[in-house]
């Protein structure tokens, strides 16, 4: 994995570094010190006393169709496994970032490739819009399925090559669920979870 500066990577369709900074800081403030011993946090799913994983970093995955940006979540206490999280039709959204963070907090190294970086134009994805679903459908229909599958295969290979990562699983949401299922037929993975 080649790490880039923020200036070298697109700020879409995932949240900007500024938004992520606010999300992580808010998450840690809300979690820090507000739970009695052995209580589960309903907001971030961490147990009291757990060390939360650090903020994600942007990385570049070498792929057959050119470099692809991704978010990489490194756990504070690695468990030896990694998960490639494949985006929903809304891109690497706040929801996807939250699920990646949950997995990292459980000890997984997580990679979320930004598949919409392959689109020629930035998609309009406004969660407050009444046609948000149509926006997501339009964006996902602009992706070439075979290219997206090769990109996810490259993400699996990159994560598997990381030192200390003995097993790699795939987890996909929505559009990403079908794509993850396809990718599991193209390359070896240790686990596959395909949501809706």
Overview in brief:
The chain is an alpha/beta fold. It has helices at 17-31, 94-105, 132-141, 145-160, 175-186, and strands at 2-3, 57-61, 68-73, 81-86, 109-113, 167-173, 191-195.
What can you see in these coordinates?
- This protein has a seven-stranded mixed beta sheet with strand order 1-2-3-5-4-6-7, sandwiched between helices.
- Helix 4 packs across helix 5.
- It has helices at 17-31, 94-105, 132-141, 145-160, 175-186, and strands spanning 2-3, 57-61, 68-73, 81-86, 109-113, 167-173, 191-195.
- The chain is globular and about 40 Å long.
- The two termini are 30 Å apart.
- It is α/β, with parallel strands linked by helices.
Low-confidence stretches: 5-49
In which order are the strands of the major sheet placed? Answer: 1-2-3-5-4-6-7
The helix tally amounts to: 5
Order of helices and strands: EHEEEHEHHEHE
- Helix % is 25-40%
Shape descriptor reads globular
Strand content: 15-25%
Radius of gyration: 16 Å
């Amino acid at each position: 994995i080649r790490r880039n500066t923020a200036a070298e990577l697109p700020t879409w369709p995932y949240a900007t570094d500024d938004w992520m900074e606010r999300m992580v800081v808010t998450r840690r403030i809300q979690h820090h010190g507000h739970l009695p011993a052995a209580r589960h946090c309903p907001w971030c799913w961490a147990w009291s006393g757990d060390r939360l994983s650090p903020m994600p970093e942007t990385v570049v995955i070498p792929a057959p169709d050119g470099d692809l940006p991704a978010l990489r979540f490194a756990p504070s206490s690695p468990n030896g496994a990694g998960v490639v999280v494949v985006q929903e039709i809304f891109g690497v959204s706040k929801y996807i970032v939250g699920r990646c963070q949950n997995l990292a907090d459980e000890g997984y190294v997580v990679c979320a490739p930004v598949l919409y970086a392959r689109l020629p134009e930035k998609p309009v994805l406004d969660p407050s819009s009444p046609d948000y679903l149509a926006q997501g459908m339009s964006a996902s229909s602009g992706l070439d399925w075979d290219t997206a599958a090769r990109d996810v295969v490259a993400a699996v290979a990159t994560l598997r090559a990381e030192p200390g990562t003995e097993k790699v699983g795939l987890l996909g949401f929505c559009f990403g669920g079908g794509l993850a299922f396809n990718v599991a037929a193209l390359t070896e993975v240790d686990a596959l979870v395909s949501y809706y």
